[in-house]
Write the structure tokens for this entry.
Amino acid sequence: MAVKVEELLTADINQPARYLGNELGAAHKPWDAASVRWVLTYPEVYEVGASNLGHIILYNILNAGPRQLCDRAYLPAPDLAAKLRSTKTPLFAVESRRSLTEFDILGFSLSYELGATNILEMLDLAGIPLTWQERATHRQNGQMPLIFAGGQTATSNPEPYADFFDFIALGDGEELLPEIGLILAEGKTNNLSREALLLDLAQIPGVYVPQFYDMAADGSVHPNRPQVPERILRRVATPIPAYSIGLVPYVQTVHDRLTVEIRRGCTRGCRFCQPGMLTRPARDVEPQQVVEAIEQGMQATGQSEFSLLSLSCSDYLALPAVGMEIKNRLKDKNISLSLPSQRVDRFDDNIADILGGTRQGGLTFAPEAGTQRMRDIVNKGLTNEELLRGVKTAVDRGWDKIKLYFMIGLPGETDFDVLGIAETVRWLHRECRVDGRRGLNFNLTISNFTPKPHTPFQWHSVSTAEFSRKQKLLKEEFRGMRGVKVNYTDVRISAMEDFVGRGDRRLAAVVRRAWELGAGMDAWWESLDRAYKAWTQAIDESDLTWKYRQVETGEWNLFEKEEEKEEEKEEGRRKKEDFPNSPHLPLSPSSTLPLSPSPTLPLSLDRALPWDHLDTGIDKNWLKIDLQKALEAATVPDCSFEGCSRCGVCGTDFGHNVVVDSLPIPEFAGEFVPNTERKQRLRVWFGKVGDMALVGHLDLIRLFDRVVRRADLPISFTGGFHPNPRISLANALPLGVTSTGEIADFELTEPIDIDSFREKLAAKLPENIPIYKVEPIDLKAPSASQLLEAAEYVIAVAVGGSLTENCELELENSAPVSVAPDANWEAWVKTIVETEAFWRVHTTKSGKTQDVNLRDRLHKLELVEDSKPESIASASGNKSEGRAVLRFTGSCRSDGNLLKPEHIVFMLEQVSQQEIQLLQVQRSQLILGYG
């Protein structure tokens, strides 16, 4: 049964369009035709989840399968979550609007360590027991959906969350999830029990069923029955760019662009980097597939920006050729390309060419460490000369803002290395100064290193006390440095991530208790204080306090100090090597100086780890060998381009590196030049009805931009650095208000037949934005917003009282109300019309107050009796003296002279001396003053 979402999404819910499920690209497959019904449940707010590439790809793949239906759900914001609980409404999937308990299987993305509390929140809102043990004994066991998780954290170490999931999907899901769907369909046909179905699923490579495994005293995990494998294989799939083309949300998302993957996996071998270890081997996408996906995707979605995605885009050798080919093909579309963090050593003129243009975005590089020794320890493969060359190239090509990522707390790090971050920035500032130009600005993000499973540093211990001390060192060093903005990761987040990330099954109780105490959305700064308090209390209540104290103080370090005289020699040598022309570093005599690597590894490396039963392809002995090389500050080359590093991945189970060679770069066809010609202006009257009333004004402007692109209409652009299409809406319609009288002006670069324009535009607009009329307007005529004089509204109102008629008030986007039987609407309306003044204090945007006579802004007011619009009348058709439908016309000018529906309510309350409730608003027309 569908949830009545419209009754939930009232005026007090922020960004209600998040929950509509009516985006371009939404599947809406028929419920009864599906044999298996999925929900991909993303445990973050919609703006994050709907723009996640993995979420989009898997959604498209599942819906492409016969008799498979895939819907979506997201973590509701606190306002909707509170309303779901207060109304006892279960969490729903956004397309079908059905409760999550009606589906066969729910798949959560677990992409970071603290995301599990959000998952528990979603399960609780859905009315689903939190653990597999509770679900197995629940009276509705047969009707409860299977709950599973995938994603980087789930693949890395699912043990702290094992109690919450029926199974874990390890690795890439493109092939794995359809295989799971086939087993589910067969299991439903054969009416298998929950346990029998899970046993069948456990036979699929990549499926880990925690209840079929037990934890030993040392934290290691072993099968408790012979039918399941001792180690579970991580799945590897080939990227398919075509599946990246999909959802186009109405609200602005975190990554509001088309994203296409060009390379999956990274073999650089950075020793701190878990994705680089868990995504091997590297697999390049064929350039032609990338180009076609972008070209088709931009036309299908109407997006104005696209991104090429990889852990290291610069390692895709065909990037300059592919980027230039796409840029040439789309050069007349005012489209920009963005890239995620790049290898600064590969940034050159060829890559700068594809990034430049009328909308030059920012650049992000990740040196990670401030000294050459530290970059060698982490195997970054970056020299000072390469860093300087990349930044200089960016400056020469016009960039004056660059973002840099660094880490502190890395194994073997000293105060010299920490202060080297500031010295690196100071050095880059000095070396990249250009006379006559504004100075280079750096935006730094300094993260706290937290060791991750399946990396050479997985045995390392960090100290949050040291994080705090090193942050203080850097804050002092950066004080007064111009052109630098520094952001630090909160130490408390790092402590919680490290505590959970390398834990075992004992942590499930801590995770659950933290959620019960209020933890959730833990990585959001506004939630951090509450989350940290909840986690701290949950840990204190457990018997794992000792483990958390090790995170606070550090348990042991693989690096030991040398004698002081050796340190002094090392200091002088490094200053020369790291910063050849640098002045003396500001180190006090008591500063901690560089540490010397220990020649041998401790015996504790042989202890069992909670994730040893997961076969990611990386040989544990190789991790030990690589850690020994880190102790020696020895680097290992990238095996995609040089010799094999013997990590253990390449072979039958995981495949081999697939590297596409560099290609000839096409000749540059020129930057986009906005066509500012204005040959025709068309005025469009349109409506905003149904659920589109919950799409905000700015989102509506973006929607028209995308619609014009998809319809391939010859729109004129403004000039300047950021050309925008010449589309002008006459007036912003308040959120939640329907309308049948909106106006927009479109200016075109060439004349077009009006019927053809209307047909093309209507074909790409949502059905709840109907077009009523299109007229040509003189190019020199004022815009609709300049001509706007008044607006006509139809409103439904009620008087608060004792008589309840909630059963008769099924108004769209309205809340149930109580109405009084003694309302005299006709007399009240007459009194308002005959009264000369209704004074109200108005506060301007600047904070100034002024007295306004609302009656001056009211042109007409009447009580609607027998002519109630269908969309605003009650479903019963009965009249009530306690409520009424009114029509009014009032000022609606761009200078702020407005009469709002709330003002009519104010006047009604003045004459009636009763509380008046505004039930629904519909704007029926905008009135232009042509005279």
About this structure: The radius of gyration is 31 Å.
